[in-house]
């Protein structure tokens, strides 16, 4: 009898120890599973993000096609040509920007050391409209200060015209892009009303296509105008800054020439 009770007690202890071992194994496996899930989440998120980016690109292509190839192509052409003129102007204006204070200092030093010819050589080697204006003024120094002043004013107008060259085309595409979008809007609404007239009934499915075309072309034209307007305003501000520097530098050059003439 005692042996039976001992066997039963031993069996209970073994069962209890086995149960504890299983629970411990399950608790140890749970963090590992959570760690695997955590490591798998970034991969899934990256895949989802890639799918989202691909779907966005495909949606843009789809919207371009839904807007009507004819009108959306015209809007796209306006964007490409407008950006071409805008980028050309931005590059030209950045190259035309120069350090006028350094140029004036070099011209003054050249006048004191080598005279007008040395100053002309400095202007010839310097890039930008300010150096060109200085050269035209120095080239007519022998005719008197009044002639130099008139030459600077005249050639300054020429340089201002060169700086503003191409802005009218950018303004044209800024105005043209929304008009093309609105033209697509009108065509889309006409198509919607034609569908209503043919069906003899007002149904959302009939007018949805025409209204979608109208809205897509309008959005496309407005987006093109907004992009080009940013470049246009940048170019206008840059031109104003360069022209102000030209005027200030021209006045300083006249003062230098008057002092140089008095020293003779």
Folded structure, characterized:
- This protein is mainly alpha-helical.
- The chain has helices spanning 2-66, 69-96, 100-124, 129-139, 145-163, 167-199, 204-263.
- The protein has 7 helices and no strands.
- The relative contact order is 0.12.
Summarize the structure.
With 264 residues, the protein is mainly alpha-helical. It is built from 7 helices and no strands. The model is unreliable at 1-40 and 46-51 (pLDDT under 50).
Radius of gyration: 39 Å
β-strand amount? under 5%
| Structural class by sheet pairing and helices | mainly alpha
Helix percent band: over 70%
Detail the poorly predicted runs. Answer: 1-40, 46-51
Q: Could you state the order of secondary-structure elements as H and E? A: HHHHHHH
- How many helical elements? 7
- Distance between termini? 139 Å
- Count of extended strands: 0
Q: Quick one: biggest sheet?
A: none
Query: What sort of overall outline do the alpha carbons produce when their principal axes are compared?
Result: rod-shaped
Quote the average pLDDT. Answer: 76
């Amino acid at each position: 009898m005692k042996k039976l009770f001992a066997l039963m007690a031993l069996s209970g202890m073994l069962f209890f120890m086995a149960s504890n071992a299983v629970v411990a194994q399950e608790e140890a496996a749970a963090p590992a599973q959570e760690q695997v899930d955590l490591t798998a989440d970034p991969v899934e998120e990256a895949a989802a993000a890639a799918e989202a980016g691909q779907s966005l690109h495909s949606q843009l292509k789809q919207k371009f096609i839904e807007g009507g190839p004819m009108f959306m192509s015209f809007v796209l052409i306006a964007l490409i040509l407008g950006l071409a003129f805008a980028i050309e102007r931005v590059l030209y204006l950045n190259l035309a920007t120069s350090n006028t204070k350094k140029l004036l200092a070099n011209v003054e030093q050249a006048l004191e050391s080598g005279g007008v010819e040395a100053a002309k050589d400095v202007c010839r080697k310097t890039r930008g409209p300010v150096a060109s204006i200085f050269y035209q003024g120095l080239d007519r120094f022998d005719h008197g200060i009044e002639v130099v002043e008139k030459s600077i004013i005249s050639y300054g107008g020429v340089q201002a015209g060169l700086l503003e060259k191409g802005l009218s085309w950018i303004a044209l595409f800024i105005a043209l892009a929304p008009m093309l979008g609105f033209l697509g809007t009108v065509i889309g609404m006409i198509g919607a009303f034609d569908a209503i007239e043919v069906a003899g009934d007002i149904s959302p499915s009939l007018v949805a296509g025409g209204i979608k075309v109208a809205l897509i072309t309008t959005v496309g034209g407005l987006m093109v105008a907004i992009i080009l307007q940013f470049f246009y305003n940048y170019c206008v501000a840059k031109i104003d800054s360069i022209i102000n520097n030209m005027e200030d530098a021209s006045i300083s050059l006249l003062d230098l020439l008057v002092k140089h003439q008095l020293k003779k």
